[in-house]
Each structure stands twice: as structure tokens, then as C-alpha cells.
Design goal:
Length: about 325
């Protein structure tokens, strides 16, 4: 089966460009040509290639810098980049790896090898596109759930933002910070199975209604489980309603058995609950909310050491807007 895709060729040598262009057009690929780094970055923004074949030695901006900028740009960071070079020393390859290159080809180019690597990287790009599309669908579902209640507007974005900032303050690994940004958006996606009569009820829930509401972390985990890239997000979704003393749900985890990322998110979630207006109560001020959370931590609900860091962050203004995190999330 022939693989299609958009390829950007970046080289200042006309003979090299002509040879690559002839080969790639014969294989049915859609092409754009750039003869310098500035033009290459412009084509990446407009053409959105599935693969970039990039010469290293060019006047002005060299291939290393072009590759680095492609990988630093959110819209193109997953675009595979193949560096083409006449340099064969290990130092040059290390520079390419540090710039984010996905593969290397040495001049003179073996065109069979070029085609094999091109097809392989295009398959990988297709796979990553599918994952991104799946994540977009989940995010859209999460936002639609949020939109069911006008009082929860902005809740997902606020949790993603403040959770990531607390994680950065705690110097958690980058993968956990990224997981918290994702989890902030989709943590309550399981509420898709909760009827509006329960989700929007302006007063206390009955025991049966509480039981239904408490299913949402498990349902949310199941919805997101097929997405492999969400492996580190799933424990946050499942456990963000656990309590430090083991009285939470769905699994009754306690202490350090609750993942640190879930403990981070739950503090942002509770704070948002207290500082956002609801039909049945007005929002608390930041200080009142932090005082309530401190009392709850003393009762064993929250990680007290983590709450100290969270409170310090809120008081310092590091969480951007101290106002408003969604109240319904605490249910």
C-alpha cells in the first residue's frame, strides 16, 4: 500500500533538491521546497508537512537551528525531521540529536534507504496524528461536560494551570507536570454518565445520588484508558477524590498510596470548589478557602505538607488568578 504525505525539502543546493524532488514526486508525495532556514520555518507554519528532509549546511540559519525551532514550536513539535549531511563525525550527530532530529542520512544519499526511512517516519506521524485527534475528542467531551453547568465555566483550564504550577514548584518530573495539564482537562470526564438532575442539583445529594456521582472517577479512567499516551494521566483521574486518611473514593487509598499527582490535582480541585459561586452558596475568599482546607487537612483529608506548598503558592500569586476554582468538583 502506497503511503501518502506532505514532505518539505530544505536544501540550498539546486542539484540536490532536484534529485530529491524527482524521487519524491514519483512516489506520489506532495512537496514543498525551501532553500534556507527562514523559508523552511515559514513553510512549516503554512504547509504543515508530515516530514522534513533538512540539509545541515546552509548559509544563514543552519539545519541544527531550523530543527531546534521546529521541535520547540507546539504546532510542529511532532513533525519528523531527517537531517541530511555530508558530516559523519559523532559530534555532528550528537548536535542533531540535541536539536531533536528523528533520523539522519549521509551524503551521498542511498535513495532506497531514503524511501524506507521516509515511509517509516510517515507511518509514525500518522500514528501520532491519530493519538492527537483522539486526545482532542476527549478534551471536547470534557469541555462539553463542563458546559452543562454554567457555574463550572473555566474549571478545566484552571485546574490544568494551577496543578501544573504546583507541580513545577514541587520540582516534579516533566512527565508528571504534563500529565497534570492533561488531567486538569479530563479529570471529570466520567461525569458524562451522571444525569443532569444529579450534576446540577442545587442542594445536598441523597445516598443513592452520591453513589452514582462517585462512579465518575472509574468511568473516566475507562474512557481514557485506550489512549496509550494517557498512562500517567489515568491514576490522577481515578484517585483525585481519595483522601489522605483513606476516607475518599473510589478505592479508599490513604497517605502516600495516593499518587502525588492526584494529591496535587485534588488540592486545586477543592480550592476551586470553595472559591467559585454556586447556586446554593457564594464563593469564599482565598484566605477563607485556605483556612477551610487547613482545617480539613487537620482532620486527615489532605496531605498537610503539600497543602502548605499550595497555600504558599496561592498567597504569593504564583497561581495566576487566586479567584475561582469550580465548586461542583468537590462532590
Amino acid at each position: 500500500m502506497q503511503i501518502s504525505g506532505r514532505i518539505l525539502i530544505v536544501d540550498d543546493e539546486s542539484s540536490a533538491v532536484k534529485a530529491l524532488e524527482t524521487l519524491m514526486r514519483r512516489e506520489g508525495f506532495e512537496l514543498r521546497i525551501a532553500t534556507n532556514g527562514t523559508a523552511a520555518l515559514a513553510e512549516c507554519a503554512s504547509f504543515r508537512p508530515d516530514l522534513v528532509l533538512l540539509d545541515i549546511l546552509m548559509p544563514g540559519m543552519n539545519g541544527y537551528e531550523v530543527c531546534k525551532r521546529i521541535k520547540e514550536t507546539p504546532e510542529t513539535r511532532l513533525t519528523p525531521v531527517v537531517l541530511i549531511t555530508g558530516l559523519s563525525d559523532s559530534e555532528s550527530r550528537i548536535r542533531g540529536i540535541n536539536a531533536g532530529a528523528d533520523d539522519f542520512l549521509s551524503k551521498p544519499i542511498d535513495y532506497n534507504e531514503l524511501l524506507a526511512r521516509t515511509r517509516s517516519l510517515l507511518k509514525l506521524k500518522e500514528y501520532t496524528d491519530e493519538l492527537e485527534n483522539a486526545e482532542s475528542v476527549l478534551n471536547s467531551l470534557a469541555y462539553s461536560i463542563e458546559a452543562r453547568d454554567p457555574y463550572t465555566r473555566g474549571h478545566c483550564e484552571r485546574l490544568a494551570q494551577v496543578s501544573a504550577r504546583l507541580a513545577e514548584r514541587l520540582k516534579l518530573p516533566d512527565d508528571q507536570i504534563k500529565a497534570l495539564r492533561r488531567a486538569g482537562i479530563v479529570h471529570d470526564i466520567g461525569k458524562v454518565v451522571v444525569p443532569d438532575a444529579i450534576l446540577l442539583k442545587p442542594g445536598p445529594l441523597t445516598d443513592e445520588e452520591i453513589s452514582i456521582m462517585r462512579r465518575h472517577p472509574v468511568v473516566g479512567e475507562k474512557i481514557c484508558a485506550p489512549l496509550r499516551t494517557f498512562g500517567s494521566v489515568l491514576p490522577i483521574i481515578r484517585h483525585h477524590h481519595e483522601r489522605f486518611d483513606g476516607s475518599g473514593y473510589p478505592d479508599g487509598l490513604n497517605g502516600d498510596f495516593i499518587p502525588i499527582t492526584a494529591r496535587v490535582l485534588q488540592l486545586a480541585d477543592v480550592y476551586d470548589a470553595l472559591t467559585t459561586d454556586r447556586p446554593y452558596r457564594k464563593a469564599d475568599t482565598s484566605e477563607v478557602a485556605l483556612g477551610i482546607m487547613a482545617n480539613e487537612a487537620a482532620r486527615g483529608w489532605w496531605d498537610r505538607a503539600l497543602l502548605e506548598d499550595f497555600s504558599a503558592m496561592i498567597r504569593s500569586g504564583a497561581a495566576a488568578s487566586a479567584h475561582g476554582f469550580d465548586s461542583n468538583a468537590a462532590r
